[in-house]
Structure prediction request, 272 residues.
Amino acid sequence: MSPGPARGRTPGQDGGAGRRSSVRRWQLVRAGADAVPPSTRRFMARARQRRMRAALPWAVAVGVLAAAGLVAWAVLGTGLFGVRQVRVIGAKLVTPVEVRDVVAIPDDTPLARVDLAAAARRVGSLAPVERATVERDWPGTLVVRVVERTPVAVVPQGDRYAVIDGSGVPFQDLPQAPDGLPVIRVGRPAADDRGTRAGLDVLAALSPRLRAELVSVDVAGLARITLRLHKGRTVVWGDATRGADKSKVATALLDRKADTIDVSAPDVVTFR
Prediction:
């Protein structure tokens, strides 16, 4: 009897079961730290360090820019570092109030935005001020340093007296002549007035003895300058040239009994 097919099985049934049993089922499992080789861990650590080193300069630059922007906004855009005080140094002929008024910087104006040169020019426009500087004193003070004009002579103007400096600039108007200042008589004192300049040149050429005897320098014209001395004596000076020679000759002749000494031509002197 020949063996027949197995009862209850169909052809190919064994093959199908074999294929099903051969299918693999995969499952993901987290590997422990010790499952990664040490060399791989070292490589990955070095890679992370390289990435961090590459990113660090950018991070620092962004932080610096952000901080700089914050500081610039606080200094330039807010009153945090604004003007709180105007301190005036060196003012005697002008008052600190006059200086502060002409500076004209509103309170809380950002100190960094103040135009120092413009403020100094405004202070310099005051007649008694020869020059001025304006500086910042953080966090909130403007310092104004004033150099005032030095009085050299007075010029009678009606019943009052104009005080002028060495440049001929009138910067004070007084009801009477101050002690110790020589008098120059000229029509209109001004820095650009030739008569004023001539009178100052003559005054600068006088010897100490002539200055001690001087009552006034009278400028009737550029070539008609006369010195009025004590006891009614007169020195005819002429123009303002050769001042040193004229001063030397006139000083030498002061001991002569003469009411008028003419040194307008210092090489040929006359007196009477």
